[in-house]
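It is worth pausing here to work through a concrete case rather than discussing structure prediction in the abstract. The textbook approach is simple: state the sequence, then state the predicted structure, then interpret. We follow exactly that order.
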Amino acid sequence: MLSEGYSQNDICRETSSSKTTVSGYKKMADGTKLSYQELLLKEDSELEALLQHKSAALPPDPRKAELDALMPEIMKRLSKRYATVELVHQDFYLKRCPGGYGYTQFNKHVKAWREAHDLSYHNVYIAGEQWQIDFAGDSLWLTSRRTGELTKVVVLVCVMPYSELPFLMALPDATTDWFFHGLNKGLEFMGALAKIAKSDNMKQWVTKADRYCPSLSDACMEWANHYHIGITACRVRKPRDKGSVESAVNQLYQYVYARIQDEVFYTLDELNARLWELLWEYVNKPFKGRTRRQIFTEDEKPNMNPLPLEMHRFRHRKTVKLGSSYHVCVGSERHMYSVPYNYVGKMVTVMWDMEYVEVFLGTMRLCVHQRSYEAYGYTTDKNHMPESHKAYERSREYNAAALIERAGFIGQAMKWVVETMLTKTRFPQQAYMHCNAALALAKEYGRDRLEHACLMMKTETSAASLKVLSNILKNNRDLAEQERMR
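Step two, the predicted structure:
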């Protein structure tokens, strides 16, 4: 406008600027010693540099140069566990630079340095390709019904980064068998197999960390080979390598954890049922115009492999000599499982996973049991017991009705003896033993003599006693009584 001869008043009116502003720009333009036409030919950045007020440059602050030199070491110290900016300021920075910045300015420069250097790369994921795995940092708790004692459980989280479809499951601990059991449940939840599974350097996954070629655990390789899944691990201390699952954990904290923080759970099954109920709500919430479940089903699942007919079973194994108790011990719970007694003294192989316990002699499977987590308990199949043990077991299991019925076959006097023994004792198990012993006298003395002896005891004492009954028969008093009556 100046080059076309507009007056300053006209320029002020057209640009809604003050006369001071317009005259200031005219003065700076004239001070360049260049014509208006020459100035108009320059780039905007060059023109901006010519037509700016030159402010007096402040002298550089020597404290800033000192801080910049120490910043790599400061960041290293801040990355340590429990470190805070205030602690690093007091215990490191001020000791190196006694005349340095106060805490407020120090904190401001630390934040600015982080913003300038802590850059994030945006990963682009291919549908159905990668499945990321991690444990949530925050645990959940089970409550004992009897004592109210709290037991900590860990939470496994997996996610498909493309659709951000998550899965979570509470586990008693992070041991290898529970870990792979949780992964199997995650695959069943999706109903398909990703091409790659990625985790950090947890010991269940990696035995030796390496930036380029980590050593994977045998259990991990066995699991991957079963499903034909490629295995990869994050770089050490690089959580952003699995940023999607880190984000999923935080999202599940806000949606799932927040809704159950006041709820009480007594069993793992109760807790997981509630987690999966909330998970189903979460994956069906609106997300990017659809839902996470729809994105997964429509975009990812067609690119994934189907599940095999049989899911992978991570199994422990050990070879032991079957002892005289014909039971084998399994797991940290030290539970005992029976094996057919005729294999006592043989070397057998015990294999177990989270659901079943199997015992083999060579390649022949001898038995299979549903796994129990009752500490120091026994699971016994009666078919595995020798006949003598079965007979003893039957004798222990007789109830009062069965004993009275047996006594009735001998006679009414014998029935009276058994009924009296059962009603006059404080300890039923002890009465069962006495009744069985009394009934067993029929094998030695015959039913007729036993019935007559019971009748004599009832007539003479009106009390039932195993000792008295035995003495009558042993001393042949019943025979003498029968001879006298003749």
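Step three, interpretation. The first strand starts at residue 130 and ends at 135. The chain is about 45% helix and 15% strand.
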